[in-house]
Design a protein that fits this description.
The protein is an alpha/beta fold. GO terms for molecular function: FMN binding; NAD(P)H dehydrogenase (quinone) activity.
Length: 217
């Protein structure tokens, strides 16, 4: 028999869904750091991959890798229902999200109709080719989706001083973690990128945990 105290302890742990799409692995590397950070807070973290929509033949010509064999289960809209917080990750495409993520969002109409995501917390991370290639605009142009679902966005602000690092070319924004992949995709995440991503996971995990503990106190 489960005691009331142990039930309360379990319910006080937030469930955080990390849903991401990664074509070449850049977003995947940030996702692992974010997952690590969120897990460090004691949250129940559930990672998912957002389904690829391009044919295998096209992806092979693009020399794509991670989207052909995702490490985690493919997410469905119903997987978002149990979450207290959601962390979305995807590369930028012309300053907005790629079609794969938009296709997933289009499947969440049933959640919108029932208000299933209203009041849940959300944040984002991304990657782009250059320093001014859509890091922040990708997050800003996704906000309408969050607003229509009643999701509450949690930005990092400047809570991690490394966001102001000028000693190397790195990503990171007050809206969330990011990295610079380079025009040919050859640049990988820096130590600073991964550190800030881990910080985002911890910050978000603690933020959501505070809310959940308050509800169950």
């Amino acid at each position: 028999m489960i005691s009331p105290s142990s039930t309360r302890e379990h319910r006080s742990k937030p469930i955080i869904v990390v849903a991401f799409y990664s074509t070449y692995g850049h977003i995947g590397s940030l996702a692992e750091a974010i997952i690590k950070g969120a897990q460090a807070t004691g949250a129940i973290v559930k990672p998912y991959f957002i389904e690829e929509t391009l044919p295998k033949e096209v992806l092979e010509k693009m020399h794509a890798g991670s989207s052909l064999a995702p490490k985690y289960p493919l997410i469905t809209p119903d997987d978002l229902k149990e979450a207290d917080g959601i962390i979305f990750g995807a590369p930028t495409r012309y300053g907005r999200l790629p079609a794969q993520v938009s296709a997933f969002f289009d499947k969440t109409g049933g959640l919108w109709a029932t208000g299933a995501l209203t009041g849940k917390f959300v944040t984002m991370f991304t990657s782009a080719a250059g320093q001014h290639s859509g890091h922040e605009s990708t997050m800003l142009t996704t906000y309408p989706y969050f607003a229509h679902h009643g999701l509450v966005y949690v930005p990092m602000g400047y809570s991690d001083p490394s966001i102001g690092n000028l000693t190397e070319v790195q990503g990171g924004t007050p809206y969330g973690a990011s990295l610079i992949a380079g025009p040919d995709g050859s640049k990988q995440a820096t130590a600073g990128d991964l550190s800030f991503a881990e910080h985002q996971g911890k910050y978000f995990g603690n933020f959501v945990s505070t809310f959940v503990k308050g509800k169950t106190a």
